[in-house]
Amino acid sequence: MSQGIEAYIVRLTESHGAEAVVMGLSGGVDSAVLASLVVRALGPERVLAYYLYDRDNEEESAEKAQLLAEYLGLPGRIRNQIPSPDMAKGITDEHAMGISYKDLDIILHWLENEYSEEQIVGAGVTRRQILHVRRMHELSAWKRTA
Description:
Blueprint: H1 2-15, E1 21-25, H2 29-42, E2 47-52, H3 61-71, E3 79-81, H4 93-97, H5 101-112, H6 117-122, H7 127-139
Parallel strand pairs: 1-2, 2-3
Helix pairs in contact: 1-2
């Protein structure tokens, strides 16, 4: 059966005139199986793999993706990529940030006014969302320094 899938991958790639395939590795089973089939069909030199960060991934996901890339002959070619609005059609700013503007506005307003976490949760957001916004704020601190 895998030979049929590999032949399909070759036909599909050729029908689009593609020299290479760009794909995402999450560190999970689905992307591992697909990556294995694509490399078997096209060869590692025709595969560019991105590790796609997902806030719901296991902590070891990036390491698993890197190990798979090395096993498939893709070392040095895996790239870390946080989903961004410019990456693909349908990815919005809210998707990239992992939170809606409505909830982000609530959290930022309440944090700026030094409300407690309990008060912010009372406004209708979760503790996880508050932690996420605090982490985004910390990670982007370099953008606010002169």
